[in-house]
């Protein structure tokens, strides 16, 4: 990686960190209602655009609109601004509306040579990006955490991104054995272990420094949780690599200097957010 690209990535990381963590620490609900749907919409658009560049048609506008609406409406329900419908019922209705909407759209659009693939890829995009990203909102408004739910989101982002930092640093210094050269030529097993170590250390430090805000994360389990999030983060990154390799693109977009697109930014979080949410559900219930 060239020095200029490293500087661009570092600058982008600092600016994004200030914006995201500032919004989370502030506890300003409207910031969540802006940042999460915006990132989800951009990432969805990039996902569809990458596949269309490969010649795979999608209902890009419909899929992106549905994804953004899902994230916004879900925020309204989870934050308590809408109380007449529960979150589980809302998600079922959303999936029903998306499926019926796509099938109806296909009835009136006979220009597609592969209509089933078009519908399937559009649904995949909304599930992969919008539905998985919505678990960040679930963490922010996780009922047992009360007003400290935003610190669960901070924990998630820090541990996930420290996995990337650890994998990059250790892999660059000591990487010798390629992990999956076909999907991601630069990833090594040494980098994976480095990412796991950085994630576990970052998680332990956060729980130590913020014991009250992160009281739902039990210290005795932090090592295992860090390993689980780190491993899932790597899988999430590789999953996006599958999409980019099939689309024959290096990055999902050029929105963020040194990083790529919105999907490049959140690819790992799409996998780690539901894992942390399910972990907290299990720990809380037991």
Secondary-structure map:
Elements: H1 3-26, H2 29-53, H3 60-78, H4 87-108, H5 115-140, H6 149-174, E1 178-180, E2 184-188, H7 189-209, H8 222-247, H9 262-266, H10 269-285
Antiparallel strand pairs: 1-2
Give the class from helix and strand content and strand pairing. mainly alpha
Number of helices: 10
Q: What's the shape?
A: globular
What helical percentage do the residues reach? over 70%
Distance separating the two termini? 46 Å
Widest sheet: strand order? 1-2
Rg of Cα set: 19 Å
Number of strands: 2
- How many structural domains can be distinguished in the coordinates? 1
| Poorly predicted segments | none
Secondary-structure element series: HHHHHHEEHHHH
* Percent of sequence in beta strands: under 5%
Average of per-residue pLDDT values = 83
Major β-sheet profile = 2 strands, antiparallel
């Amino acid at each position: 990686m060239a020095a200029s690209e490293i500087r661009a990535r570092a600058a982008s990381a600092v600016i994004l960190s200030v914006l995201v963590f500032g919004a989370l620490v502030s506890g300003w609900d409207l910031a969540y209602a802006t940042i999460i749907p915006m990132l989800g919409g951009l990432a969805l658009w990039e996902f569809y655009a990458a596949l269309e560049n490969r010649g795979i048609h999608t209902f890009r506008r419909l899929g992106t609109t549905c994804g953004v609406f899902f994230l916004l409406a879900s925020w309204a329900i989870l934050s308590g601004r809408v109380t007449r419908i529960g979150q589980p019922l809302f998600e079922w209705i959303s999936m029903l509306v998306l499926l019926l909407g796509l099938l109806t759209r296909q009835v009136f659009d006979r220009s597609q040579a592969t209509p089933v693939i078009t519908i399937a890829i559009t649904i995949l995009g909304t599930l992969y990006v919008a539905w998985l990203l919505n678990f960040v909102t679930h963490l922010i408004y996780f009922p047992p955490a009360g007003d400290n739910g935003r610190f669960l989101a901070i924990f998630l982002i820090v541990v996930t991104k420290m996995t990337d930092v650890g994998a990059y640093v250790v892999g660059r210094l000591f990487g010798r054995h390629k992990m999956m050269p076909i999907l991601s030529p630069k990833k090594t097993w040494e980098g994976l272990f480095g990412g796991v170590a950085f994630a576990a250390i970052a998680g332990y430090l956060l729980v130590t420094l913020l014991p009250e805000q992160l009281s739902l994360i039990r210290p005795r389990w932090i090592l295992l949780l860090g390993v689980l999030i780190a491993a899932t983060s790597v899988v999430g990154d590789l999953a996006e690599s599958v999409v980019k390799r099939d689309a024959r693109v290096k990055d999902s977009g050029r929105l963020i200097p040194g990083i790529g697109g919105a999907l490049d930014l959140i690819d790992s979080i799409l996998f780690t957010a539901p894992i942390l949410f399910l972990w907290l559900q299990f720990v809380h219930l037991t």
